Structures are given as C-alpha cells and as structure tokens.
Amino acid sequence: MELYIAIVETVGALAVVVSLIYVAKQIRANTEQSISDRLCDNMMIGSASELGSIIVRGITGNVKLDDEEQARFIFFVSGWLRTMEQAHRQYKKGYLDKAIWNGYEAYLRTVIPSKLIQAYWQERHTIFNEDFRKMIDEMNTDLEPTNFGIGSGR
After folding, report:
1. Global pTM value
2. CB–CB of 69/54 below 8 Å?
C-alpha cells in the first residue's frame, strides 16, 4: 500500500511540474503576442496617412513640424517607446525571445539618432525605467544624432 501511495504522489508531482512548464510556455507566448500586438497597433496608427506623414517628417527632420504635428509626433513616440520599454523588460525577465528582441533593438538603433527623438529623450527620459534608460543612453553614446531619410540604410 505504501508503494502505491508513493507512486501516486510521484505521478502527481510530475503532473504538477509538467503543467507548470506548460503554463510558463503559454505565458511566454502570450507576452510575445501582446508586445507584437502593441507594435502592430502602433504601426497601424502610424500608417494613417496624416500621422504617417508627421512621423516620417519628425524622424527625418527634413521639415519643421507645427505645434499640433509636434504634439501628435510626441504622443506617437511616447507610445512607441513605452512599447519598446515593455519589450525590453520582458526580454530581461526571459519572457521574450532573444531573436525577437534583437530585431526590436536594431529598429531602436535605427530611429533613436533622429534629432526630434533625441530631443524627446532629453526632456522625458526620466519617465522610463532605469534599465531601459541605461540601454538607450548607451545607444546614444554609440550613435550620432542625425537627420536621416527613411530607407537611407541608417
């Protein structure tokens, strides 16, 4: 009888471990999907013809934005950087795959040198968590602020 109880307890413990592994994988997949959804939402917002134009002009710095356009650009950049901050946090906790994070980081390195985004960062960097600030600040030591064209390879 004791052997039977020990076998049942072992099988029960094994079932708990398997279910915890399953839940951990589901959480990871859900996290990646959630961040992906937020980025897609940002892209959909940014693809709206008027806002898309403002974003491109804001990033490239080729044309000065009026006050309303600058406000819309700042609103968009705030949401986008918050999404990147959350992705960075999830990556650091091990919930976001390294390959996915590497793509996000490469995109950050492409856009962060924009003079308007640099100005935004200088004024508002304290609203972001310390790890994210440190990462962006390290990028900023490696990159020169620039006005670059979309598709210029920079």
Report:
1. 0.64
2. yes
